[in-house]
Amino acid sequence: MPNTSGDRLVDQLEQSKDRYGRGEAERVEKSLDALVRRRFADAESLIRFHEALLFLRAFPQGPGVVDRTERILNGFYQRVADLRARGADMSPFDVYEVLGIAGTSMEDTLNFDAARWLVRHIPQSVEIVWDDYDEDRAMAATWPRFVPLVEEDGDVEANIPWRRWLDAARGRESELEWLIGRFEQLPCSPREKVEIYGSLRLPVRWRIENLPLSRTRNRWPARSFYYHSEPLITRSQVSLERELAQPAPVLKKVSLAEGRRVIDKIQEVMLVRYRELYGTTLGDPRSVVRADVGRGVVIYLWGVPPERRLPLRAYLAGFTLKNGVPINYIEAIGLCEWIEIGFNTFYTFRGGETAWIYAQVLRCLNQHMGARCISVYPYQIGDGNEEAIESGAFWFYRKLGFRPGRADLLRLCEREEQRIATKPGYKTPARTLRQMAKAHVFYELPGTERGAWDRFSTRNLGLLVNRLMAREFGGDSVRMRRATAEQVSRALGVSISAWTSVEKQAFENWALVLSLIADLSRWTAQEKADVVRIIRAKAEQDEMRYLRLTQRHARLRRGLLRLGS
Questions:
Q1: 474: left (phi over 0), alpha (psi -120 to 50) or beta
Q2: What is the enclosing helix (H) or strand (E) of 207?
């Protein structure tokens, strides 16, 4: 059917994202019934249709809306294929905000863990992109590990036929599958495998086709649906103080099987959006917890394996499902009572109760991590992030009660608030938003020491350690690690000879920092025993116990704040 009124119908469907109430479900169903017969003439209109469908599937007015959106989305790849067959311009599907639609493909230089995941899960749909790839030096340095005699060419010849060598070696396996298998067999640590594979900068293409990992079909069956019969909750209706004062949500440890499904799901979610996060790539399925917080919202959180943890801070990642649809991802990194939070709602769902869902995420993080001081990265509010500037992300956090961590920026913020209050139609200039985004913003729960963490950064600790290494150890990190471990062992009166390798690594990392505390040897026996317990907990299965132990060690906290601020 020609697309004479398709745009008007899509307009109506997009407007329905803001309309909830009596009769709205039936109206949306009629729009969907009309649109299902439409043949779209251009990519832009088809993409708009797709994004409206996804939003309504997550925030439906009724069961009929769910049924219709699922039916259309499950066959959506055919619409993309039809558009391509008619010679339409397909470049709009490559725009970052709408990547991952069924019927398209994606290409990126992935890290080892992400590439391995693709090979394991969709081996027939992933391939190396050799066009314009010319990394002879990287291949000459890396391939001799698993391609016998390739040095005969790689070390001395020009114009080496690398793919002929690869074809001869791989047998019946695909190119990428064989390479990933060889990297898995290398006798080195996981981190070293990541580094060596990364040196190849190998571009990979994966065809999304009609796979369940596409954004179009990426959802879980909801245990029960929440249908919206009233307007969605707006930011002005959300009080963080009120939400965080509610009884803590129940966090349920899931089975290992469900944990593995969750980690696979977040890999799918991120890969079709060109996003990589430390904890989504390296999530530990044994650590996954789940919270059902109401309104069809389920939040999953997890950590990383002991051998891949950060040296000092505790780490959590997570994502949120709304009626089974992934709508955001989460990162939280903490030390003592302070956590830094990254909260990223996907473009499609940014009009959908974002503030209320953010408050529920904070409730879960506070319950799981025991944190009392919440901070947000400058990038999240616009530092080097023009998208956040355009969306006014700073004001999202400010109106929820966050404050800038620098006194000069707080004064600037208050001046802007005065202008907004007294000048109708006033909008904060982008240059002012960029200025206000130059520091973390903070939210402290009642009873928390205000401003204690404003200037703290583990980067400051790391820079102190490195300056000491340059000054006293000639830049030799091995010698410094050995010396500080011995020094701190004596000060704490502990031997680590019988500790596991992961515990020893944790001790060496902490020794670098503890060696900077001048009065460490004068700590009480209990304080010393407690810090040893903290370090060993870093290597335990549940890193949250480690974090909570840091919250109970007042003297360690004071030392860290003094050095890191």
A1: left
A2: strand 203-207
The third-level CATH classification (topology) of the domain covering 235-444 is Aminopeptidase (3.40.630)
In single-letter form, the type of residue at position 505 comes to Q
Looking up tokens 């023009």 gives 386
Supply the DSSP string of 332-358, one letter for each residue. Answer: EEEETTEEEEEEEE-GGGTTSSHHHHH
- For residue 326, pLDDT beyond 80: yes
- HSE-CB at 417 with a 13 A cutoff on CA atoms is 13
> What b/e string do you get for 445-466 counting C-beta neighbours within 10 Å, with b at 16 or more?
beebeeebbbebebeebeeebe
DSSP H/E element including 289? strand 289-294
| C-alpha to C-alpha distance for 329 and 112, rounded to whole angstroms | 21
Coil vs helix vs strand at 379: helix
In angstroms, what CA-CA distances link 254 with 30, 183, 263, 301, 471? 40, 31, 12, 10, 49
Question: Residue 99 gets which letter from DSSP?
Answer: -
* Tens digit of each residue's pLDDT (9 = 90 or more) over 420-437: 999 999 999 999 999 999
3-state SS assignment for residue 19:
coil
Sign of CA dihedral 143, 195, 278, 389: negative
AA identity, residue 76 = F
User: Is there a contact between 55 and 15 (Cβ–Cβ < 8 Å)?
Assistant: no
Q: Which residues pair with 375 in a beta bridge?
A: 340, 442
CA 449 to chain centre: 29
One-character DSSP codes across 445-498 = -TTS-TTTTTT--HHHHHHHHHHHHHHHSTT-HHHHHHHHHHHHHHHHT---TT
**pTM higher than 0.85:** yes
Would you say 520 and 555 are in contact if contact means Cβ atoms under 8 Å apart? no
297 alpha carbon, distance to own chain's centre:
18
Q: Is the dihedral of CA 554, 558, 564, 565 positive or negative?
A: positive
* Residue 548's pLDDT band (cuts 50, 70, 90): very high
**How many beta carbons lie within 10 A of that of residue 405, not counting itself?**
20
Alpha-carbon gap, residue 21 to 15, rounded angstroms? 13
Asked if residue 196 lies in contact with residue 186, where contact means CB atoms within 8 angstroms, the answer is yes
- Cα–Cα–Cα angle for 240, 414, 333, rounded to 5 degrees: 45
Contact 142, 200 (CB under 8 A): yes
Chain segment 214-271, per-residue pLDDT in tens:
999 999 988 889 999 999 999 999 999 999 999 999 999 999 999 999 999 999 999 9
Helix (H, G, I), strand (E, B) or coil at 300: strand
Phi, psi values for residue 106, rounded to 5°: -135, 155
Which one, of 478, 552, 554, 564, lies nearest residue 516 by Cα? 564
CA distance 183 to 196: 9
Encoding tokens for residue 30? 């009629």
